[in-house]
Design goal:
Layout lengths: L2 H12 L11 E7 L4 E5 L12 H11 L5 E8 L9 H10 L5 E5 L5 E5 H4 L6 H5 L3
Parallel strand pairs: 3-4
Antiparallel strand pairs: 1-2, 1-3, 4-5
The structure holds 2'-deoxyuridine (DUR) and zinc ion (ZN).
The site of zinc ion has 6 residues, from helix 3.
GO biological process, one term: pyrimidine-containing compound metabolic process
Family: Belongs to the cytidine and deoxycytidylate deaminase family.
Catalytic activity: cytidine + H2O + H(+) = uridine + NH4(+); 2'-deoxycytidine + H2O + H(+) = 2'-deoxyuridine + NH4(+)
Length: 134
């Protein structure tokens, strides 16, 4: 599954976004350890704080299918430019992705830019943080 193929899946998932409040539609597609692709769209709520991002919807599908390792994730949105994942999504990604795993963002020209998780979330809090004092 290439970067472009994964972005195509994300773009397709974006069509299902439920975003009546922000009107900002996001799609995400991730590649699990076994090569399965999981997709997600943002799902908003009248109680705004109950909304969930596309990335976490995709991750929830993957984890509830008992795949615990994510190789890469692609994200696109109606902004037509790079949509960086929010802080909560970066933290959730860090639970299931390696520091050097790829986050693929669609760019304005229809291309993409690849970041590593470490670039987007340096010095992350993880399970090692809790064990380091023992
Ligand atoms: O990376 C992002 C950034 C924002 N959103 C959603 C949350 C909300 O529904 C809308 C506006 O913030 O976009 C995502 O799904 N992923
Ligand atoms: Zn998010």
């Amino acid at each position: 599954m290439t970067e472009t193929e994964l972005l195509d899946e994300a773009r397709h998932a974006m069509l299902n976004a439920y975003a009546p409040y922000s009107k900002f539609c996001v799609g995400a597609a991730l590649l699990a350890e076994d090569g399965t692709v999981y997709t997600g769209c943002n799902i908003e709520n009248a109680s705004y704080g109950a909304s969930i991002c596309a990335e976490r919807v995709a991750i929830a599908g993957c984890i509830s299918d008992k795949k615990r390792h994510i190789r890469r994730i692609a994200i696109c949105s109606t902004s037509g430019n790079e949509t960086f994942p929010c802080g909560i999504c970066r933290q959730v990604m860090s639970e299931f992705m390696d520091e050097d795993s790829q986050i693929i963002l669609e760019t304005k020209d229809g291309g993409f830019h690849v970041y590593t998780l470490a670039e987007l979330l340096p010095y992350s809090f993880n399970s090692d943080s809790m064990n380091s004092g023992k």
